[in-house]
């Protein structure tokens, strides 16, 4: 490997070598090819998706820089020299923290596809990168008022619809603004996990008698593994219906698939695409590139600040399996001393 010229972000599993794909799918289905397979079946769908994306990045780089390696068996393909070069490429095209995360996920993916490969050096490097990188998980720096996110989404969506009404045909950029606005409305109304939000299908969406939209996340896309129904509030339901009726039909590929969020290329928007557009819109509006999952933190923290005695509300809103997960935000509120004092701090931070 010399250096990526135009390396795709991640090779989709449909384009993986046959043996890699077979091993991966057998592991996911609970086959007995690998030891401790029962542990892998307990991984959430989001975790599987992260491992798959990391392995896809590895294969995409090999396919571009060393195509002959794609003909080898997975374990033969993993050499110390290739791993070293790949690690250098990853650290050169993203932050140390992101590179560390990608490399750590690749290590786990390799234990599934090529369990005999020696990944110890890569594991140590991933650990070093993640510890050495400056922390970007200061909750205060990622905190946004969730109602402001909703208002931003509303402005983007209604602005796109106004252009449609005025001009009839509008450029794809304006349509994508409308789509991204609807994404922000959906995230601030019912902050689903990003993987679940990407999976939403129009056929799983119904309108209740009171006009509120009910969306269903299928079990394979929910962290719990169970099918879960979510109901949006009246304002969000009104805006999301406008998106489905006025904006989505004009997006590329809208007629050939059922996904809520078509991409600019006509395919369903994936996890990385959703993360990217969310960060870009929030960076442009608020100066903070907040990822979609962090909006769940915003909701939980808002409840911890304003109504610390009713943290059960956040547990329901965020679909936490246990109140222990949500309790971390309650502890955050108590740690300052009193919710009133914490509210003042939040207001100052958000100015």
The CATH homologous superfamily of the largest domain: Intergrase catalytic core
CATH level 1 class label of the largest domain:
Mainly Alpha
CATH topology of the largest domain: hpI Integrase, Chain A
Spatial ordering of strands, largest sheet: 1-2-3
Q: Indicate the percent of residues in helices.
A: 55-70%
Largest sheet: 3 strands, antiparallel
Question: What would you call the shape?
Answer: elongated
- Number-wise, the strands total 3
Look at the helices and sheets and give the structural class.
mainly alpha
Number of domains: 2
The total of helices stands at 16
Compute the gyration radius: what is it?
Answer: 22 Å
Mean pLDDT: 78
Query: Secondary-structure element sequence?
Result: HHHHHHHHHHEEEHHHHHH
* Poorly predicted residue ranges: 2-7, 31-41, 309-343
Strand and helix map with partners:
Elements: H1 18-28, H2 37-41, H3 45-65, H4 74-77, H5 80-93, H6 96-113, H7 120-132, H8 146-167, H9 172-189, H10 194-198, E1 205-207, E2 213-217, E3 228-231, H11 234-247, H12 271-286, H13 292-306, H14 311-317, H15 323-336, H16 339-350
Antiparallel strand pairs: 1-2, 2-3
Helix pairs in contact: 3-6, 5-6, 6-7, 8-9, 8-11, 9-11, 13-14, 13-15, 14-15
């Amino acid at each position: 490997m010399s250096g990526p010229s135009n390396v795709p972000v991640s090779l989709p599993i449909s384009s993986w070598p046959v043996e890699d794909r077979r091993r991966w799918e057998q592991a996911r289905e609970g086959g007995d090819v690998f030891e401790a397979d029962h542990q892998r079946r307990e991984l959430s769908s989001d975790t599987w998706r992260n491992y798959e994306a990391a392995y896809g990045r590895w294969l995409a780089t090999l396919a571009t820089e060393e195509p002959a390696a794609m003909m080898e068996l997975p374990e033969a393909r993993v050499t110390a020299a290739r791993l070293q070069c790949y690690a250098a490429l990853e650290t050169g095209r993203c932050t140390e923290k992101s590179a560390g995360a990608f490399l750590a996920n690749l290590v786990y993916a390799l234990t599934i596809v090529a369990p005999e490969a020696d990944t110890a050096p890569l594991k140590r490097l991933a650990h070093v990168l993640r510890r050495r990188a400056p922390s970007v998980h200061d909750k205060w720096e990622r905190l946004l008022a969730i109602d402001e996110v909703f208002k931003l989404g509303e402005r983007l969506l209604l602005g796109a619809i106004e252009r449609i009404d005025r001009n009839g045909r509008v450029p794809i950029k304006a349509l994508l603004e409308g789509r991204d606005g609807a994404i922000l409305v959906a995230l601030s109304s019912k902050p689903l996990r990003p993987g679940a939000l990407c999976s939403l299908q129009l056929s799983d969406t119904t309108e209740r008698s009171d006009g509120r939209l009910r969306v269903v996340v299928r079990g394979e896309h929910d962290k719990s593994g169970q099918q879960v129904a979510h109901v949006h509030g009246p304002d969000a339901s009104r805006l999301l219906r406008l998106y489905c009726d006025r904006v989505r039909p004009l997006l590329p590929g809208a007629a050939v698939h059922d996904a809520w969020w078509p991409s600019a290329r006509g395919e369903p928007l994936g996890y990385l695409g959703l993360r990217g557009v969310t960060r870009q819109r929030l960076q442009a509006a608020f100066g903070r590139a907040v990822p979609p999952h962090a909006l769940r933190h915003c909701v939980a923290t808002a409840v911890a600040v304003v109504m610390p005695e009713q943290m059960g509300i956040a547990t329901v809103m965020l679909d936490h399996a246990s109140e222990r997960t949500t309790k971390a935000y309650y502890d955050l509120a108590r740690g300052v001393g009193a919710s009133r004092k914490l509210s003042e701090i939040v207001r100052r931070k958000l100015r």
